[in-house]
Request: fold
Amino acid sequence: MKQNVAILGMAATPVGKYQSDPSADIHTLEHELLAKLVIEAMQDGGLPKEEVDSLVLAQCRPYTQQKYFATFMANYLRMPCTASVMEVLGNGMTGGIALEQAIRDIESGRARAALALGANFESRTPSAEHMNSSMRATGDVDFHTPFGLTPIAWYAMDANRYIHEYGSSRRELASVAVKDRYHASLNPIAQYQKTITLDDVMAQREIVEPLGLYEVPPRGDGAVCILLCSEDMAKASGKPYVLVKGRGFYHEGVHQISEIPNDMIAFNSLQRASKSAYENAGISAQDLDFAEIYAPCTIVEVLASEAMGLAPRGKGARAAVDGETTLGGRIPISTSGGLLSRGHPAYVTPLYNMYEAVEQLRGDAGKRQVKEARLGATSCELGNYNAAMVQILEAVR
Amino acid sequence: MKQNVAILGMAATPVGKYQSDPSADIHTLEHELLAKLVIEAMQDGGLPKEEVDSLVLAQCRPYTQQKYFATFMANYLRMPCTASVMEVLGNGMTGGIALEQAIRDIESGRARAALALGANFESRTPSAEHMNSSMRATGDVDFHTPFGLTPIAWYAMDANRYIHEYGSSRRELASVAVKDRYHASLNPIAQYQKTITLDDVMAQREIVEPLGLYEVPPRGDGAVCILLCSEDMAKASGKPYVLVKGRGFYHEGVHQISEIPNDMIAFNSLQRASKSAYENAGISAQDLDFAEIYAPCTIVEVLASEAMGLAPRGKGARAAVDGETTLGGRIPISTSGGLLSRGHPAYVTPLYNMYEAVEQLRGDAGKRQVKEARLGATSCELGNYNAAMVQILEAVR
Amino acid sequence: MSIDVIEKNRPRAYPPRPTECTAIFWEALEKGKFQTTKCNDCDSFTFPPKPICPHCWSSSVSWKELSGKGTLYSRTTIYAAPATFENETPIHAGIIDLEEGIRIATQLIEDEAIPIDSPVEIVAIRYTDGPLYGARKAE
Amino acid sequence: MSIDVIEKNRPRAYPPRPTECTAIFWEALEKGKFQTTKCNDCDSFTFPPKPICPHCWSSSVSWKELSGKGTLYSRTTIYAAPATFENETPIHAGIIDLEEGIRIATQLIEDEAIPIDSPVEIVAIRYTDGPLYGARKAE
Ligand SMILES: [Zn+2]
Ligand SMILES: [Zn+2]
Reply:
């Protein structure tokens, strides 16, 4: 019988710069930081370590010297497991895949408790070097990479198409960055907490036209551990928990662009994944109290909000300008500050998004608390939202 | 309701050297080779591409230039998916984890058909360079790697301990290599097909004492695709298929050695995983007609055969000497030629082992056919068998 | 129906790797011929060219020349580039819908911004070490 | 109870990275003191040293000196080594059960094969860039 899946505990380190220089006298190492978070997450959930049957790790960046990190951690924390010990990878969706596998282990009864976790350390690698690797990820190495296309270049082309089709403007898109930074100013684990104005955003140098520095993701390090268990176990704990009420996944069988021309900025996969998730949860988009969206650029949040049915097509940027997606607005989006300001240690970003959703649903979000938050959604993706994963979460207190 | 899981189709390329020199005029690329195998596997199973809901990819080696290979393949073959598109990693268990996730997708009903697949290209990277990476995988980077420990050094220490405890000899262990090569001589996809004698094995230079060149894994490239579906769908196909009758997994929470002294060569995790798998399948070790064991070195096959209950403790090497594990013997082991002679493109090795088991159970193994093979087992592992995965497979014709 | 060929007096920053299949594409491109594979069974074009049809999985494909004419679907200019491309910034790139019904992404070889939805054409570019392609405003 | 210290006139091939926790280990080792962390709650030793106890997850651990005496559980000689270690082959390595009930793996610093199950002792080795440890036959 399928088990209902609950999120019972969690821990995260503030997004920032942790990675040490190879020649440092004292190093900050991924495993020491992550081990601390595992213990904190388990204390947060009040479960003994023996209950954990599954460790699903978002793979580390190649800069992490300790390889086969999942099995290394199983040893470091002396955690025998009967269900899963593995590392998963899928671009920006990596952390979401880790969560999904942990959910599946609980749902099927294979695991009593499961951890979805990861550490993404990359800040010491200069962006130009890092892009030498990431340019081989978001396209065809032989038919796209030779032109110098970078991951965010694809999003920039979404932006120009959106502006062209819907008569939107860079200013409208840029307002998303201002809103995200405002949210981040209320989030103690955000990488950038100083508020900014629309003029600040517009004044930044262009990175990929029409997107400037504040409209593309910063780079940073982070680590997160999320503890999942069956709802029965969560109930027995007597603690507040979050129920995974619905999930959706769809991969459209396309990598970056479809060779058959389509409406690229419709985010078809996200439309399908969110529809599945809403149906699975028995809700509609209008029932959501907030959404924590995977959006590496301003334009991506706009398009994702439209694909998830949180704003009409072509009106997502306008909704941001009008404050509808700000805390206190109709549907607050990225209350954490989002990838732009909370930060984007890419392989664990979906875990940070889940962390924020759980803070909101447990009423632990402090100054950025969405009032009476009961239902929230998280999304993550890979490529140009060619695959999307959506989770619907419900507060149980 | 849980679905029974069947293996309905497959394709593999002979293990060998495919990887091209970066400066080659014409390249052999992972994706072109693997795409061909996917189509072959689907034809083998007689299913249309639309039935596939899940792609689980054993991660490629870092030498593969095309990154995020799973989503790249989903595009290359234009395969929209509703269940999973992901890459998994877990040392030598990588291909086994891919299989297990595909099995779980079928079992849960999330996917109608699923592919577990991968391409491991590494042969152009010299062993000493390759070990610069793998030395960071099989131990603690700061407390083992500084001593120069390599992956197979741990197995060599198993060998010396085994010889010490049970009065076995290098000659006895070496007989496994002779048997494996004999099996490989009957396998058209094996990397090394020329038979060898015990004297040949003993005459090789030592790689990690007491193991010589023929007792440690060769390096090579390979690619495999395995098609899984529900038993109902397999039945409806009218084709012979293989039923996944039982599975077991156990990670002992240890990486290479236990800091609490234990019986290292008992392969405790494999004992537990095989016991679970036998129970899950409702069989005992004695019911098996053959076992395709993940064994990178002669000693590993011996210890694994003991842990799986195929030979008494301390008698595994002797069983090999006596021909009990040779084709026609009591319990043929590694009829493919095993990792030593069929070859060991590590991340896809468990997929090759599955390929061999299915060939045997479909009666397609030609000159190396185990007579009336009905029940077989496959194993895979990571570390020093600190984690083990076992599948019990049944022929349905 | 061949496309214009432009010479560039430098090597490609990140050369593509020809395979048995795609070498045919690159060799033809060098001569000003822009072509891709088309399925003999379902009549679908595919790009990049492939030894199989991604749509119906047929292994029966033929090379078909393309006109190189199309429309600009979107574009960008990349100012922050990978280290490999540091001498080539800013990089102009776009997505183009070819008139044969294929969407591709490539470089835009003119500095001025081409308006979205306006006509563009593919040109072959001969670098010192081999060819690439790119697009420019159509006449 | 300190261990012997040997000098080596070359740097380590692959130096370990000290952290706030493990720097204490390496600094003591340099001075001939071989120690690790022991849990204040469940009394378990752990090796390598850790800021937490892997057994009961307590964060309360103390440094305890080890005698360096133990027994060789197994050993090997590595002839095919990673590129980083090419000047150090053959490499002798072993697994040692320390008398405090901890199993570790390290280098064996003598060329002659030490018999399995025979007594060994840990020594500190001062390279030009910092310390490592190793084991040798005990007197
Ligand atoms: Zn076709
Ligand atoms: Zn303790």
Remarks:
- The helical segments of chain D are 22-30.
- Chain D touches chain A through 13 residues (CB under 8 Å).
- Chain D has one helix and nine strands.
- Residues 17-137 of chain D form one domain.
